[in-house]
Amino acid sequence: MSLDQILEMSKEIFEQGIVGFAIALVSISVLTFIAIKAGKRFFASLLKRNRIDETTRRFSFRLFSVFIYTFAALGIVTQIIPLRSTALSLLAGSGIAVLFIGFAAQEAFSNIIAGFFISFFRPFSVGDLINLPGQNISGRVEDINLRHTVVRTFENNRIIIPNATMNKSILENKDFGERKVCNFLILSISYDSDVDKAKSIIVEEALAHPKLLDVRTAEDIQNQVVQVNPVLFALNNSSVDIRVGLWSKDASDGYFMLADLRDSIKKRFEKEGIEIPYPYQNVVIRK
Question: Model pTM?
Answer without folding.
Answer: 0.61
